[in-house]
Specification:
Elements (H helix, E strand, L loop, with lengths): L7 E2 H11 L4 E4 L6 H8 L5 E4 L3 H15 L3 E5 L3 H16 L3 E7 L15 H5 L5 E4 L6 H13 L5 E7 H5 L1 E2 L16 H13 L3 E5 L6 H13 L4 E3 L14 E4 L6 H9 L2 E5 L22 E6 L13 E4 L2 H10 L9 H15 L13 H11 L5 E4 L5 H7 L8 E2 L9 H11 L5 E5 L1 H6 L11 E4 L13 H4 L30 H16 L21 H9 L30
Parallel strand pairs: 2-3, 2-4, 4-5, 5-7, 6-7, 9-10, 9-12, 10-11, 12-13, 13-14, 15-16, 15-17, 17-18
Antiparallel strand pairs: 1-8
Bound molecules: thiamine diphosphate and magnesium ion.
């Protein structure tokens, strides 16, 4: 029988495989190592290509997309320096357990091992960071490897996959059979485990639920809320997972992470039962393995996690349960609630501690500067429930974690690996994905400048700057934000911090508070109706033939390299000091 399968280039086979897996957006910095992919993308109008100016931003955007959609965010970068720039986003996806696939244009396989131009062994480079790092060496196996990459990124504990794409593989042509997406297996708790869990809970006096990890959706968070409410349990969010539970609910008792409330830390240590669902109880969540001690926790630990290898790795749990968060939350919600639990007062007290900690202290009129507690409180009152907040790393994040109350899943885009520069690209990715929703990026001055995140696409993201100049003092227990005792009481309120500069006089308090609100609300209003706020009016959607469109770039790279000019005499040695630049002449 004649083979009727079409002949396609490697780039086309790859892009068809992505489309077959439901990919609608890719984030990239173009490069000559994967031109056939760019051409295939150009011919595939169902996939939108977002071109960034730095691979770090593209990878962060893919991570944010993975967090928001629960599907792997897709990133394309070029070999060598493109890949090293993108590594930051892969690390974030690893620690955050985000599904993501990074494709890297690779050198021609005929040159492999010679340290050819921009050659890196990606299996080795990403071996310790990615969940799986590989390279495709046969065109007909592209669909198989792509399908496997989706399965690996999504199954068990989700994470990033890295795939090298040799240039000759992409430009070659041949026949490949498409592979449809595979269903993803999800581990669920066994009946015997649930019986034991219920007995341990019924016997507890000071139980505490810790929610974290990934794989959550609206249904799973609703099931978790039912279980917690029915059993009147206190729930703490793990580091940067505050959006898993409505922070306004009377069972929410705060976040375990940087700037943790000292009362909450004490309460976790004092709990007799920790029911942990989804969280690894990692370094930041466990305050450096002090709230829950490794390897032998003092509390009775019920540890529910999607990765069987995670259970028993750091903590010896009394009851390890291998289950993904969604089936686990549903199973918990279906359990008969503990009748007349003995911990009602414990739950009320924990909530009261949270309210006290999350309420901005009264302003001291003697102090000047920006009161970030008030800024967060204002955002908390003003933003709609589905607003998305994105941040990176720095002391400024502690105000967000402490004073903003998240309400819905997938509204907190925040890197648990503390990657500076994450917030702005994540916010742009969120706005591109949800143009009708308000997206707020909160970035320190350091974070804001860390990864150039421009995309050339119109977006409306408003940034506030702590002006803190990249100081890293006591990030874990920053006294001004954590409320811990400090030697100089005058510094206790953030308003007193001499480091704070106000990028806009309107953010100063107290007398200019109203003007600040008008300015911020102007930005937010602009964001809501999808038009750029004043902060980003320079960003505009490019014309179809704008040089940043992948097709144009592909064409530009394809242009023949001009012949080398005749050898020039060597340049004069550099002067000791640079000559002054001539002043710019006015534009013609
Ligand atoms: C990519 C990266 N580089 C460096 C660091 C170390 N680091 C953590 S916070 C920080 C300063 C952040 O400055 P800024 O965004 O202004 O926040 P601030 O602490 O001043 O509020 C640095 C350098 C990091 N976490 N990530
Ligand atoms: Mg700063």
């Amino acid at each position: 029988m004649p083979n009727t399968a079409p002949i396609r280039s490697g780039g086309q086979i790859l892009v068809d495989a992505l489309a077959g897996h439901g990919v609608d957006t890719i984030y990239c910095v173009p490069g000559e190592s994967y031109l056939p992919v760019l051409d295939a993308l150009h011919a595939h109008p169902s996939i939108r290509s977002i071109v960034t100016r730095h691979e770090g931003a593209a990878a962060n955007m893919a991570d944010a997309c993975g967090k928001l959609s629960g599907r792997p965010g897709i990133c394309f970068v070029t070999r060598g320096p493109g890949a090293t720039h993108a590594a930051n986003g892969v690390h974030t996806a690893r620690e955050d357990s985000t599904p993501m696939i990074l494709f890297i244009g690779q050198i021609d396989s005929a040159f492999r091992g010679r340290e050819a131009f921009q050659e890196i062994d990606y299996r080795q480079m990403f071996g310790g960071i990615a969940k799986w790092a590989t390279e495709i060496d046969r065109l007909e196996r592209i669909p198989e490897i792509v399908a496997r990459a989706f399965s690996v990124a999504l199954s068990g504990r989700p994470g990033p996959v890295v795939i090298g794409l040799p240039e000759n593989l992409l430009s070659g042509a041949g026949v490949a059979v498409d592979v449809p997406p595979a269903p993803i297996a999800r581990a669920a708790p066994a009946a015997a485990d649930l019986t034991q869990l219920r007995s341990l809970l019924a016997a507890a006096r000071r139980p505490l639920v810790i929610a974290g990890g990934t794989g959550w959706n609206g249904e799973a968070t609703a099931a978790l809320a039912r279980f917690v409410t029915d059993n009147d349990l206190p729930l703490a969010a793990s580091f940067r997972r505050q959006d898993l539970f409505d922070n306004r609910d009377r069972h929410y008792i705060g976040q375990l992470g940087l700037g943790i409330s000292p009362r909450l830390a004490e309460r976790v240590r004092d709990a007799d039962l920790l029911l942990t669902i989804g969280s690894r109880l990692a370094d930041a969540t466990s305050s450096g393995y002090t709230l829950v001690e490794s390897p032998l926790p003092r509390q009775t630990l019920i540890h529910i996690h999607a990765d069987p290898d995670e259970l028993g790795r750091v903590y010896r749990a009394a009851l390890p349960i291998n289950a993904a968060v969604a089936p686990a939350a549903n199973a918990l919600a279906a359990l008969p609630p503990v009748a007349n639990p003995t911990w009602a007062d414990w739950t009320r007290a924990a909530r009261a501690d949270y309210i006290a900690h999350a309420t901005p202290p009264a302003a001291d009129p003697a102090l000047t500067g920006v009161d970030f507690a008030q800024v967060m409180a204002w955002l908390d009152e003003t933003l709609p429930d589905d607003a998305i907040l994105a941040n990176g790393a720095g002391n400024y994040t502690v105000w967000v974690h402490r004073f903003f109350r998240y309400r819905r899943p997938a509204t907190e885009l925040a890197p648990t690996n503390g990657a500076m520069g994450y917030g702005l690209p994540a916010a742009i990715a969120a706005k591109l994905r949800h143009p009708d929703r308000t997206v707020v990026c909160i970035a320190g001055d350091g974070c804001f400048h860390d990864v150039p995140a421009g995309t050339g696409h119109g977006h409306a993201v408003r940034c506030a700057d702590s002006g803190h100049r990249g100081e890293q003092r006591h990030a874990r227990h920053h006294p001004h934000a954590s409320g811990a005792e400090v030697s100089r009481p005058g510094q206790r309120h953030p308003i007193a911090q001499p480091g704070f500069r106000c990028p806009r006089p309107g953010l100063r308090r107290p007398c200019r508070k109203r003007r600040a609100q008008r300015r911020l609300s102007g930005g937010l209003r602009a964001g809501r109706c999808g038009r750029p706020s004043s902060a980003d009016r320079t960003a505009r959607r490019p014309a179809p033939d704008h040089p940043s469109s992948p097709a144009r770039l592909s064409g530009a790279f394809r242009r023949r390299t001009p012949p080398l000019p005749a050898r020039q005499p060597s340049p004069a040695p550099c002067p000791a000091t640079r000559p002054k630049r001539p002043s710019r002449s006015p534009a013609p």
